[in-house]
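USER: For my understanding, would you kindly supply a protein sequence with its structure tokens?

ASSISTANT:
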Amino acid sequence: MNDDFVPAHPQDPGLDPAQDAGSHADAILKVEDVSKIYRSGDTEVHAVSSATMAVDQGEFVALLGPSGSGKTTLISMIGGLLSPTTGSITLAGTDVAALSKRELTAFRAERVGFVFQAANLVPFLTARENLLYVSTLQKRISRKEAHARADQLLEELGLAARAKNVPEQLSGGERQRVAIGRALMNDPDLILVDEPTAALDTKLGRQVVELLAREIKQRGKTGIMVTHDLRMVEYTDRVFEILDGHLTHVEQPSALAH
């Protein structure tokens, strides 16, 4: 896969993220003036600087930027994996930054689904068991309901015949589909996807991102995909570009097409 990052066209700068957020007053996700600063002695490293963005329910957006731009740090804060140094993050009215450690654990288990760059499946569990494991992290549904949901997701993702296979018996694309199923297992509000195509060739990468977009749309969820690959943004509704920790502008995917 071509790992070269292609920036947006400088002659078409798109909207300022704060200006764009102002037109999404009813957004389910609101990130307001969020920064992440790491300190080492007298040195400060601004991984993310004053980020503001808003994403509506049912939207699938891309966060586009090169390696080291701060995009993974930003979605880690949105998903409650990291705490912002300043600013606020709200998901359906919940102030993520204000949650205690215990509340954050419940928030991540119940409200957010993660799809990481590597599938990160439990290696000794089958595809079906990887999905079922997620349901044990919170007790909103019964064991019977969890089994039915896992089977439904595997069927929808084209993995019914692979349900009893462990990860090493699955292809890279199949492992990512299991990871998508796992992210959807607890019916979260928000799906966060970090470089889902990094280990896949272009054809498989497109299939995975198209599947993600379809599942998010059909289920009325909200999704953010971190990527450096311009070819994948065509499946998203809007594209936020980030560079050196700064959200620079927001565009429609069509504006980035070559």
